[in-house]
Amino acid sequence: MDFVRLARLFSSPRPVGLSILCHLDPLRAQWAGGREGPVWPRAAGWIQPAPAAFSSSLSQLPLGSQGQKNTGSLSSDPGQPSPTATQEEGEEENFGMLSDKYSSRRMFHKSTAQLYNLRLKEQNTEEDEEGELEPKPRRGPRNTPYWYFFQCKRLIREGKLAEALDLFERQMLQEECLQPLECNYTVLIGGCGRAGYLKKAFRLYNDMKKRDLEPSDATYTALFNVCAESPWKDSALQSALKLRQQLQARNFQLNLKTYHALLKMAALCADLRMCLDVFKEIIQKGHVVTEETFSYLLMGCIQDKKIGFRYALQVWRQMLSLGLQPSRHSYNLLLGAARDCGLGDPAVASAVLLRPREETALLQPPAGGRKTRRRAQVGADCSLSVKLHVEALERQLFLEPSQALEGPPEPQEARAPGQAQSGMETKAEPDHTGALTSVAPEPPPWGLEANLLTPGAAPLAVVSFGTVSTPADRLALMGGLEGFLGKMAEHGLRPDIKTLTLLAEVVEPGSPAESSLLSILDMHGVEADLTFFNTLMRKKSKRGDLEGAKALLPVLAKRGIVPNLQTFCNLAIGCHRPEDGLQLLSDMRESQMTPNTHIYSTLINVAIKKLDYAYLINILKDMRRNRVPVNEVVIRQLEFAAQYPPSFDRYKGKNTYLEKIDGFRAYYKQWLKEMPAEETPHPWQKFQTKPKGDQDTITEADMDKGPGGR
Questions:
Q1: N or C: which end of the chain has fewer CB within 10 A?
Q2: Global confidence as pTM
Q3: Could you give the domains of the chain?
Q4: How far apart are CA 309 and CA 342, in angstroms?
């Protein structure tokens, strides 16, 4: 039926369309005729409805409800009131009462995105408290394992190891449920290796094996490196030895990089003997040793604080004899050995370092191409000879004093005919005060003419070693400041700021060499940093030259360097008088810098050595005023200061210094109750991940568990 016929139906004197409309929609009929039923229009002029209005009213009716309402209207009794009329009466009675229902609503269907996010966060917080939150699969496009590899690598380079671990464990494994690759585990193990996070690295390694992923050479290199960087050397050594045994049982061939990581672990966690065992294995497997290999051997020499300097000189000579070019890092390791290690027995050192060097075969396989090296590795005789040469080096390093005295290095007549003088009859005298016993004239102030860094015999004027006890004496054996820098120039190397900082630690305090360091710094074009000046300040303060240490502060300001707390801590070492220490604290207060525990510990140490308990009480008062937490070192110092000396007897004699200890003990007891304590943070605390729901929080107890402890 088209719209024209509908218009004709409504235009008749008795509209038939209106009666049809009453059956289709009772509400429309009520609107047209009232409550009692449909009333036909009395006036003929009402016949004006537009077809568009009719069509729009029909379009508003639901499709399914039209038929139901229509059949219901036709089958109902006209004498009974319809349910629609009853419903309308109820609505009229409740008219105006709905405002109370909707006025109290706080959230409507039309809401903002911020309000929806806030509601979602509150819901997640409630679920977290109940512990019912489970990782849900992440919606959206799935990333690939290689994408996660590059993202974790970027985060580790930025120093965000905890974020990288969280990205891998939560988003990749739990949310996206991706199958990781070997590279995903290797990059995380490498990041843990740089941070020394031992337990986490081996937990990732065990998880990697459970997923049937084959570790690569880079994986084992990272595992040995994390053992070397771990703060707990004993447990790291046990883990590394166990891993090495597993690789040997599988007959896994390590490359040179992995051997270097193993050598680094042996240098930092074990001793020089284990380093030489790994060095033997490197030679036996046919690898060509490099300067980096000997650098790790030098690190192993530094671990021996008594004889490490002699070991370092012997390893250095062996490296030069192989034709290897030393690097700046090797020279820095030599300076570290001169600073931290001793020479050992002078007789053994004289026999090993001053005698003419005997030519020995090279420790490398014969040079003749890669095929020749492989044939040399396979040949049993050649490998045996190489092993014997390495063992000869080991015997030379660990030479006993009795063996050194049995075989004198060389007769005096063969070394210098006509030098039979009375002053050169003995090889070593314990009463010598100089670094070298010589008949030559007095050397220049920057060092002696002898330089033990040169492979070969010492100068003919040198007879034996005397007492070498200070770092300046050991630097003199390497030619002093001028000779050491000259050897670096021979190898085409220039000192960096680390080299000059180490030289500042080993030069003679107050010597011209120490004052010339700034000019050497400018001559080589090296930019000075705060660590270099802090080293100079610490040396001057230890010598008691507080004014000389303060004189470096204008130099810092001239170079645009801002002092830090370590600078004031170095100045506190020289504050032997109470007024100097209190003035230092006042200057820091004016500079808006709060002293830390290390500065107060340094001042407490100076006051205890002076037995100045009044000065000590003033330091504790300033510490309480600034609310600086107390650590274990400060408590140990104060407990020692609060004890009476074993020989103190107040009834036997009068001691004005120790009589003041009673007042300090009373104040210290009250002070201890008011001060906060400083908790030592765990080294791995900053790398712990804390996923949602706290179900994966790592504690120190969890670190001691195995891979399945979480």
A1: N
A2: 0.69
A3: 3-75 (no CATH), 181-406 (1.25.40)
A4: 5
